[in-house]
Amino acid sequence: MPALDVNLAHGSTWSGFVAMVKLGGGHILAGTDHLLFLLILLLPAPLLAAGGRWRGPAGTRAAAGRIGRTTLAFTAGHSVALALSALTHLDIPAWPVEAFIAASILIGALHAVRPIFPGREAAVAGIFGLGHGMAFSFTLAEMQLSTGRLALSLFGFNLGIELVQLALVALALPALVVVARTRIGPGSRIAGATVTGVAATGWLVARLGYPNPVAAAADAVGARTTPLLLVLTATTLTALIWTLAGLRTRSVRRCASSGVASG
């Protein structure tokens, strides 16, 4: 992602705040690993777990509620860690935090294949969100802002992260719920979890000091945000069209059945 220079010494407070919102939004879009963790944790959210396996879809309301709680917990976790690490000027090495993030994605991918913590996705998202928040704080630390400016910058930066994150989750929500109810649901979930797990393993190994082509490939794909957003949008539109077609078919069948019964 191209660097965004933010100079709070000149211009208005509002312009500086808007610049920080843009920086936060751009940071989450460029931080593929952060979004990948949230999406992989949401992947099995529309499903019910039983006997150590994912068994069929949950109700739409239950699925939406679980996705909402998981998203909010992740938001709370990384917001708290971002505030604490930025305002207290914690001097934490970057590599353990980055390795922790890669490990969190790998655990999320394994959970998407077989339920490890069914029903506790929100709690896990909150815990792992703490590590993701520490990673976000590195960007603010590099700017070396004074305490007063840091507080305003922290709010704007975090707001930008949340706006983009919530927009992407809202975009993915219909596809997650609808695909879970189709025949391709299990295969899509396993394929997505496998690809994510491989990428996370490559990142984890690289962040422990062993560069590898898997991590390089994952970084290269993550750098292309626009195609990823287009794929997500196309998937969601397809899911919505599928749902509307299904509703129309069922409506026609009910009308036909009513006509036969009355005849």
UniProtKB/TrEMBL annotation:
Record keyword Magnesium present: no
Protein name per its UniProtKB record: HupE/UreJ protein
Keywords: Membrane, Transmembrane, Transmembrane helix
Any single Pfam family the record assigns to this protein: HupE_UreJ_2
Organism: Actinoplanes palleronii
Transmembrane portions of the chain: 28-50, 71-88, 94-113, 122-141, 153-178, 190-208, 228-247
